């Protein structure tokens, strides 16, 4: 069974613990705060009260050959850097650390974190395009200039099948999944016929997704559907 | 131009501001802390020092018909709830609030937040499957039982085209994009031929993705590729 230690149970550490509890792994939690440990003591393999910036204590406490360590010291940036550095010296293979700023993330990488997580920044990247364009509901930058976005389907999609619309060829978009306003995402077949209020999850370059969402928004209100369809189809 | 106000510049609020600065929107920031305001004063339309739990002051300060408000009071949960409630009473259409716990999120929705964001929990959901399975590099729950995951391609993919492998039919997976270890995601054509060390971004049900990643991991080491391919192809 894999062994994972969570050093620090601030918001991210606790969220990781909640997720790990559903999995078949051996969990060790370490925190200075005895109240926090007591809250989780019955659900984990071991709950140890100690300060992770004590290198010797950490070395004695962490099992040899532990598979992964998750570090979240909350606002205590120095402690998270020291903990990542110590775990690196101890030869831990996977060191996941939470960072709040670019500088913090850079230092964590320098001292040996194998993965730095920026929860607040990642959430911001998803939410901001949603504020700016009302047609794009949710937006996730994947890397390069590729994004995954939730898009309300334009009205002329209704009644057409996925195959007929050929989103990839006509708009450069890859259809990942479809849902209705009040249901969850599901697998779909190429003969799926779009229905009123469907929401599509698509991937594509930022430009293609923005153009698709932005253009439709503008043209639907100003020139009506016929022109908007014509323009879109002539685009490529 | 759209008008957006950020109430509170804790980690999430600042990250949203960083993203919004690249966009064509009018930004107003409000915080009690003058030092924080000074840091951003030159980059926004207005920086106002006030306590958002003063309903009258907030009403006087927020422009009428503001498009969206982003609320991040850090650890001050009561302030974020009051701010969301006041914005709701003022008729703000989009109220995005950061929450740390389920209870906090529920209350924010009750008092009128239109979208509640859980950055730490969302990051945890992505990172945990990655700890547990080494073949799945990165993992994003989309809704329902659908997930998007980064997967190292198995060796027998190398040299085959996307069309030949027919991931959708054979594994229930939708290929979103492909990258090499050291490049970023890009658009691909159906005749793309997989190369050594390629990483694929796929979507599918949690079960299909886990089975794909988990099975391959096990069978590659124990029975070699031929059997593993046979088994996978007989699966459906």
From TrEMBL, chains A, B:
Molecular-function GO term, any one: monoatomic cation transmembrane transporter activity
One GO biological process term: potassium ion transport
Highest taxon in the source lineage: Bacteria
The protein, known as: TrkA family potassium uptake protein
Domain RCK C-terminal: 135-218
PROSITE patterns: RCK_C (PS51202)
SUPFAM superfamilies in the cross-refs: NAD(P)-binding Rossmann-fold domains, TrkA C-terminal domain-like
Signal peptide: none
Source organism: Gracilinema caldarium
């Amino acid at each position: 069974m894999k062994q994972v230690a969570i050093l620090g149970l601030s918001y991210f550490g606790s969220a990781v613990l909640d997720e790990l509890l559903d999995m078949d792994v051996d969990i060790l939690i370490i925190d200075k705060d005895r109240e926090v440990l007591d809250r989780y003591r019955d659900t984990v393999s071991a709950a140890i009260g100690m300060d992770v910036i004590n290198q010797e204590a950490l070395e004695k406490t962490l099992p040899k050959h532990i598979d992964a360590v998750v570090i979240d010291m909350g606002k205590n940036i120095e402690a998270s850097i020291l903990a990542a550095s110590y775990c690196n010296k101890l030869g831990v293979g996977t060191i996941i650390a939470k960072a709040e700023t670019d500088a913090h993330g850079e230092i964590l990488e320098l001292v040996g974190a194998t993965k730095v997580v920026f929860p607040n920044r990642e959430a911001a990247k998803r939410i901001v395009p949603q504020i700016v364009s009302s047609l794009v509901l949710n937006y996730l930058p994947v890397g390069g200039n590729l994004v995954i976005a939730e898009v309300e389907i334009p009205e002329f999609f209704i009644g057409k099948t996925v195959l007929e619309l050929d989103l990839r060829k006509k708009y450069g978009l890859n259809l990942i999944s479809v849902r209705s306003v009040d249901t969850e995402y599901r697998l779909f077949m190429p003969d799926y016929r779009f229905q009123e209020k469907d929401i599509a999850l698509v991937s594509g370059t930022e430009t293609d997704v923005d153009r698709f969402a932005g253009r439709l928004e503008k043209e639907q209100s100003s020139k009506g559907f016929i022109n908007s369809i014509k323009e879109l189809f002539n685009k490529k």
